[in-house]
Amino acid sequence: MLDDLDHELERRGHAFVRYADDLRVYVASERAAERVLDGVTAFVEGRLHLKVNRVKSGVAPATVRGLLGFGFFVRDGQVRVRLEHRTRVRLKARLRRLTSRRRSIAMPVRLALLNRFLAGWSAYFALAETPSVFTELDEWLRRRLRQVRWKEWKRFAARRRNLVALGIPDRKARQWAASRKGYWRLSGSPPLQRAMPNRYWTDLGLVSLSDRVRRLRDLWRTAGCGPARPVVWEGSA
After folding, report:
1. Is the pTM for the entire model greater than 0.85?
2. pLDDT at site 226
3. What is the mean pLDDT of the chain?
4. How far is Cα 101 from Cα 72, in angstroms, rounded to an integer?
5. Can you point out the beta strands (E) in 62-148?
């Protein structure tokens, strides 16, 4: 039934997105957004005989309201796409489960599970124009993996032996292998970062979010396509 609404919005020349019964109409000013919201409400209730949820409906800058996991921000006079805060929270929650120290699985299996999940996640969220956010998430994930590795080594002898094998001087390796600091704190320490840098995880098969997103966006540019720019105000019903 809402297909009729789509046709009406297209007839009026509006830029809009609808997912099931969640609708966003993007316009250039607050006044235009209020006018569109009134018009859409009248059409939905008068022509389609459906009820508009006025609690959830309203007018706001596009930078305030998210859409399907995305948010928007303004840079150089243009509205660009970012990850909504809740999207990052949900992503970290999922990655915590996949990198839980309580899950006793081999690292290659763990990385395979991470790669499978991140491939689908990044294919959807590569629209976000925030490379620094993807870099921060990569750093956080690698730190999670370092603490998993540290727990796998368990004993002093294994920790010292593995640190030395990864290029840490023996004196430093002994010092850190004997440390009683917590897993998370140690996973962010210089010796563990030096022992297990980005290349370490790449060689084990982990593909970073930043690399996945960069490849997808390069592919879009090569194909001559990419995300359309939303404008500044929206009315949602």
Report:
1. no
2. 57
3. 87
4. 35
5. 70-75, 78-83
